Amino acid sequence: MTRVLVVGAGPAGIRAAERLVRAGLRPIVVDEGARAGGQIYRRPPEGFSRPPEKLYGSEAGKARALHAVFDAMVASGQVDHRPQASVHAIRDGVAHVGAQRIAHDRLILATGATDRLVPVEGWQRAGVFTLGAAQIALKAQGVAIGRRIVLAGSGPLLTLVATQLLAAGAGVAAVLDTATLAQQAGGGGGMALARPAVTARGLAMRARLGRLYHAGVRLDRIAEDAVHWRDAKGQAQVTPCDAVALGWHLRAETQLADLAGARFAWSDTWAQWLPVADPMGRAGPGLYLAGDGLRILGADSAETAGALAANACLNDLGTATPDTPRLLRRARRMHRFAAAMAQAFPWPGVPLDALPDTAVLCRCEGITVGQMRAAADHGGAEANRVKSLGRIGMGRCQGRYCQLAAADLIARHAGLAPQAVGRLRGQPPARPVPIDALLED
Amino acid sequence: MTGQLVRLAETDRAPVAFRLDGRDMTGLQGDTVLTAILTGADSLRPAEFGPERRAGFCLMGACQDCWIWAEDGVRLRACSTPLAPGMRLLSEAPDGWPA
Ligand code: FES
Question: What is the distance between the terminal CA atoms of chain B, rounded to a whole angstrom?
Fold first, then answer.
């Protein structure tokens, strides 16, 4: 039987596995979570009692359906589920998972996304988290990240997490959106055309935030017990707080796609390097990508993309999939919505110029903006050269949280477009691993 | 002592005792090590490359900001390690261990 490996058990990975099982295959599904669901439909550990309606709100039905499909496949032995496991390298058709080696004929990567971060002076402090972290803390553990929380950044998660925290009884001090109302209106029209109901839900959430919400904000710094910022008129403001959650939409998790041989192209829409794939997700021989790890399209779209990637895999194995045209139509509509959303909540490049040399750029190793600018002066404006000179992108997070900002800073420093400084190449391990897992290599 | 994290729901789970830096602490069954520590303390560990302390960042296993240690020298990622009864944890590497 053809060995298909699926990495990731979020909406994309679950729908991909479901199709493969229906076609008579028994995929291996490696996932970092203890229970399938991914980040957006993440489940609390056993013993927690809040129902899906409380955890996922309007999306509870989708969460329930995905969890049920996957749990049934695991219970009946139709998938080989490897939970709490990370793929840290892929080479010659073999995935390295800790000390294990998983040989496969076809690979479907549904690796999702992490928050996209912009450095803010003081963001290395304890008590500063990502927006995704604030949501995970609430959903999976029933805790708020602090008593007086400032949420800052931009994108759909900003409003969503703020609303969820308020509903759970958390203290939210302010919601600071760096996107201006004009930018949001520019993208909002396209969003409403493509998905009117989802757009209306977002606007209703925003209304619930009332006076806590500020648009067109600039963040100055995060101090010990307050966030210093400027409102849309440029007035200095200080909001006392004991926790901060930051995020500017999402960044596709592409390291494994890189290691598996995908090609990359710069995307102006999402302001990041993204893997190149055909409309069904084919990214190379026997390599398929789906979900936010390919394009930041969100959870609904990830389900469609997972189904399409599995269809592509099945087609390449000689099995017909009559519903592909319907799925492709749906995928195109989702894509229009997400592109408009990326326009509504853009990467806030300009404030990077104002970052002082003393601000920390790499949270892992405390490398400052000044050190990075010096490395670019010395070695030239090329991302991989600055990386080896300045260790940017070499810390324990493997550049996940600094590389987009670093590339943009280098570009701005040199007066180039961000894509002109090149792309940081992925290198194994994609996650730190105990040394004995690598010894037999 | 107040913690960085505040419990808002699911508080009727069974208590689980553990130690951090020799101090007795209590979490709840189903907590991650990070939740258990940060509901009673304001950080996990000192930063290696700066004067500040650290308390995790992503909570999804991607940033590696939350690595702490067990007394027997094993390093663990606090945000994705379930709390177990009797864990003996350290916020810094035990003597003689490379960070
Ligand atoms: S907090 Fe990021 S890996 Fe644990």
Answer: 28
Indicate yes or no: CB of B57 within 8 angstroms of CB of A130. Answer: yes
Read off the pLDDT of residues A162-184 as tens digits, 9 standing for 90 and up: 999 999 999 999 999 998 888 88
Task: Name the class of domain B15-90.
Answer: alpha beta
- Tell me, in angstroms, the distance from the centre of ligand 1 to residue A282's CA: 31
The verdict on A291 and A269 lying in the same domain is yes
For chains A and B, count residue pairs whose Cβ atoms are closer than 8 Å.
132
Tell me, yes or no, whether A237 and A262 share the same domain.
Answer: no
Q: Is residue A428 part of a domain?
A: no
For A392-419, what is each residue's pLDDT tens digit?
666 788 888 888 888 888 888 888 888 8
Asked if residue A333 is part of any domain, the answer here is: no
From B33, B64, B68, B81, the mutation candidate for ligand 1 (largest count of ligand atoms within 8 A of CB) is B64
Lookup: tokens for B2: 């107040």
Is A279 among the domain residues?
Answer: yes
DSSP secondary structure letters along A99-116: TEEEE-SEEEE---EEE-
Is residue A427 one of the residues assigned to a domain? Answer: no
Atom of ligand 1 nearest to the CA of B61: 3
- In chain A, the residue whose alpha carbon lies closest to the alpha carbon of B7 is A143
Model-wide pTM > 0.90: yes
Chain B residues in contact with chain A using a Cβ-Cβ cutoff of 8 Å = 4-11, 13, 29-32, 35, 39, 42-44, 47-50, 52-65, 67, 80, 82
Whole-number pLDDT of residue A5? 98
Check CB contact of A78 with chain B, cutoff 8 Å.
no
Do A35 and A83 belong to one domain?
yes
Contact A168, A138 (CB under 8 A): yes
Q: Report the domain count for chain A.
A: 3
A83 neighbors A33 (Cβ within 8 angstroms): yes
Q: What ipTM was assigned to the predicted interfaces of this complex?
A: 0.95
pLDDT, tens only, A120-160: 999 999 999 999 999 999 999 999 999 999 999 998 899 99
Residues of A in contact with B47 (CB under 8 A): 124, 366
pLDDT digits (tens, 9 = 90+) for A307-337: 999 999 999 999 999 999 999 999 999 999 8
Domain that holds residue A393: 352-421
Sheet (strand B23-28) strand order:
B23-28, B15-20, B88-90, B67-70, B75-77
**Type of residue numbered A69:** V
Residue B46 in tokens: 């000192």
Crossing angle of helices A196-209 and A156-167, in 10° steps, is 60
A363 close contact with B: CB closer than 8 A: yes
